[in-house]
Amino acid sequence: MRPVLGRGKTLEKHNLELKQKWDDEYLKWICGFANSSGGRLEIGRKDKTGEVIGVANPKKLMEDLPNKIRSATGVIPAIDLLESDGKPYIVITVKPYTFPVSCQGKYYIRSGGTNQELSGIALDEFMLRVLGKTWDGVPVPYVKYDDFDGDAFRAFRRKAIESGRLTAKYLEITNDMLLRNLRLTDDKFLTKAALLLFHQDPENWVPGAYVKIGFFENASDLLYQDEIHGPLITMADRVEDLVYLKYFKGIISYEGLQRIETYPVPRIAFREAVLNAIVHRDYSTGNPIHIHIYPDRVLIYNDGRLPENWTEADLMSLHSSVPHNPLVAGVFFRSGQIEAWGRGILKIREACQHWGKPEPFYRIRPTEVMIGFHAGAGTEKKTVRPPGRNPVPQPGKEITEDLTVLAVPSNIMSLMRSDPKITAKAIAKEIGLARHKVQAHILDLKKAGFVERVGAAKGGSWVVK
């Protein structure tokens, strides 16, 4: 083989490893390259500077390495003997393989500039990915269509039509045909994505597929908590409604008959963060999404990891969409709840900027992503002009109301929007207020023109304007 002169210095990266001498341990590196996007292992170079220092017995290595590598991994790489300034070094070039490659019975992949052994859930997902499948595309046998949640299908149809992603004519099909059209079936079986999105109890097959919310006075004192269970397609709505109804204290101000609400975290930003957690979560871990709400911050914890070879900087910059659960993401896209352009982080930042809130902060761990919002809920006060029975300020005099008081009308109207037939008694029970006080607030809202009762006292419904 004709010697080739090396060119300058090359430092290690995800597809390049530099080693001063050969060690059989590096068979794992070759396996990792084959299971990832390929790469080069260069023997006889310093790993920090790339300086060529040469190898001893290069001819013997050139004879031994092909058989050694093939015997341990089944990989047949290109092995070249090169030279720089009279010093020989060996370059082993490995192409990516289309099937899983093991090294003496164990599997490895490249992650950044490191080689990692796969086991457990990570190994399962790797096997599925190499075979052209994803975790949410795994078929689940013996599931009955009758157990699916009719409300979830209706919600999907409504959202898809309202967003313009699908037409009403397209959706005039049975639910089982809809699942097929959404690619949520595998031959005769439904997939895990179908169960997560539309089944009334997906946790029968996917433990931990729910959202846990808690209000903490400090890092150790939990005051109260809730859990949101059921189909994923409506989960973001239910989480948002509960948090903004029960956990956040909104500041309500009035300009004439226009009602203005200000919350610790902008709704658009919070909803986008929840949607990101639901769509990109690693459901194989069995851990729910956790939302920790403190007086001064909101933290959303989600089991998951960045795409291969991504850094936190890649996540924060403009990037293409690489969903961990592509089937789940596809249905959320068709329902109009997310985009398919990888703009989730940007939308959250823009919403915070628009409402004058601090930008969110992140913590990225190997198997967990956390997004945090600065809040300060429960401490802010705002000058308002409440409607109806509340006092009207005299000229030159302002009224400040505690957030808890001001949140009551907002909570009542939120409940009326969710259930137009809800009674004053049910509202009182939901928000923990005496019935006569709820009725007084409703009277104020009616006088101010914010709500209207349609139909009889019994059997009628509320219209929130």
Explain what you see.
The structure is a single chain. With 465 residues, this protein is of the alpha+beta class. The protein has 4 domains: 16-132, Schlafen, AAA domain (Methyltransferase, Cobalt-precorrin-4 Transmethylase, Domain 2); 136-204, no CATH class; 211-374, Heat Shock Protein 90, CATH 3.30.565; 403-464, Orthogonal Bundle (Arc Repressor Mutant, subunit A). It contains 14 helices and 20 strands. The chain has a 6-stranded mixed β-sheet, covered by helices on one side. The chain has a 4-stranded mixed β-sheet with strand order 1-2-4-3. A 3-stranded antiparallel β-sheet has the order 5-6-7. The protein is elongated and about 95 Å long. Mean pLDDT is 82; it is low at 1-10 and 377-406.
Kindly report the average pLDDT value.
82
Q: Beta-sheet strand percentage?
A: 15-25%
User: Would you identify the CATH architecture of the largest domain?
Assistant: 2-Layer Sandwich
Largest sheet: 6 strands, mixed
- Alpha-carbon distance between the two ends: 82 Å
The CATH topology of the largest domain is given as Heat Shock Protein 90
Relative helix content: 25-40%
Write a compact overview of the structure shown:
With 465 residues, the chain is of the alpha+beta class. It has helices at 27-35, 58-73, 120-130, 150-163, 175-181, 192-198, 235-247, 267-280, 312-316, 326-334, 344-354, 403-418, 424-431, 435-447, and strands spanning 16-19, 39-43, 78-84, 87-94, 102-103, 106-111, 114-118, 139-140, 185-186, 189-191, 211-216, 222-228, 251-255, 258-262, 289-293, 297-303, 361-365, 368-374, 451-454, 461-464.
